[in-house]
Amino acid sequence: MFTVTICSISPLVLPWLIYIMIPVLEAQEVKVTGYLGDDVTLPCQAITRPEDIIVHIQWELEQPDGKKISIMYSYGQFEVLVVESFLKERVEIEEQSLIIRDVEMRDAGTYICRISAFPSGSFEGTTNLQVKAGVANVMVTSNTTDMLEYSTVRLSCSSSRSFLSFLWLNGSSEITESDRVQLTDGGSTLTIVSVTRYDQGPFRCQVSNPVSNGTSGPVNLSINYGPDNINLTISPSQEHYEEGSNITLTCSADSTPDAQYTWFLNGDLLSDTGPELRLMNIQESKSWNYSCQAFNSRTQRSINSQPAAISVLKRLSDGLTIIPGAMLILPRMIAAGVFVTMLVTTYSIIIRIRRKALVRHRVCTGEKNPQNKFLFFLFLNSTILSHISCFQFP
After folding, report:
1. Tens of pLDDT, residues 20-29
2. pLDDT above 50: residue 336
3. What's the rounded Cα separation, in Å, for the pair 343 and 328?
4. In the chain, what's the furthest Cα-to-Cα distance?
5. What does the alpha-carbon distance between residue 348 and residue 270 come to, in Å, rounded to a whole number?
6. Residue that is last in its domain, among 112, 132, 152
7. What is the domain count for the chain?
8. What is the CATH number of the domain that holds 182?
9. pTM, whole model, 2 decimals?
10. Are the beta carbons of 322 and 243 closer than 8 angstroms?
């Protein structure tokens, strides 16, 4: 006859019993590199079977001087105990791995993990942590980002690490010293003298040390310049305009910020503003001189365009328009009480008629020929009065 005695064992004692009773499995050794200020994960992965129950995990640190520091104990699902040490506020356990936040140089050493699993046994592994001062927190600051062209700008690069070297980039191009570019303070300070509109960036600073490297975010400069290269255009573009035409004048200039535009007529300021001036259904028959002015409120500079002449002509009858030019009087052209005066330019012919008459004109071959010769026909009531054979004009 057998007597069975059932006793209660504390969950804090059970792991130690398992660790003593079950052989320790083969150790695992891992090497990990951590960077100053970053987080690092130290693995401790046991080769267990699906039916195993992990009842105990222990982490401790063996420092380079041989001193051992207990870090934490995990009793399966029952409790996690973090031991008082310089790591206490920065460690946590995730499954079997140990996570160290905000790594410090003194965190370096050999970390030992012990896992007790039932029924497989106990596992012990070591992880060697090497801490390096990698590049971090690279930042570029500027004494100003909004400036006038031809002023001076100073950019400074910083990082929370030491033993650094610096490389400056404008876009993807490396910046080197020149007459306008100075690199000082070990390369951490970039000074550009007499900045131009082409020095807007983006600027970046690349920092490196023997361990790692890092690059800052982009910094763009706002260069205020101009106005320069003012241009006044007329649409449609032609030598003369008939009464009733619509004309658009456009003024443009290179400027940052955008220029403000004002308009002038024969030298007198108009109330119109903006880059476009629209002349609708023009009626008065005369010549006008329009010009524009571009003004930059940031640079306090202005520039005036060359005047553009607009000649407005009055239509006399279908197909006939008065165009200014040299005058040729033909005294022989007097018939039926009609007196004709011809106004001639190199490209255009105008006939002014006194009394009622039907007047038409043609060109020798329908267009101007290479010798600048023209043929004129004069009609009265569809009857030819006279003609001039291909008259030549200079």
Report:
1. 444 444 556 7
2. no
3. 6
4. 161
5. 33
6. 132
7. 4
8. 2.60.40.10
9. 0.53
10. no
